Amino acid sequence: CVEVTQTDVTFSYENSGFGTALSGTLHAALPAGVNLVSATDGGTLINGEVVWSTGNLGPDEVGAVSMTVSLEAGAGDYVFDATLEYLVGLNEFDAPASSTVIELVE
Question: What do you get for the CA distance between the two ends of the chain, in Å?
């Protein structure tokens, strides 16, 4: 029998630039042994990653999104990284969002 543990993971992001970041999307890949239970703010599972639309972010604007996941693979560290993709004019950019490490101990 595999024990399942549920936990919440929150990602924060910000536009630290001087211009508006247009059409932002935040992407967070799910590590092996992790399943999505739910996501806030319209986050959806697409090809093994949870994707949120952040819209346009003005200078110094910040935000956060969360997901509830189930951890089924047993003891170990689960690393959750997210990347914010956006446009400035017609140019595509990406920036790291916050990351989270969850240690599951048996």
Answer: 14
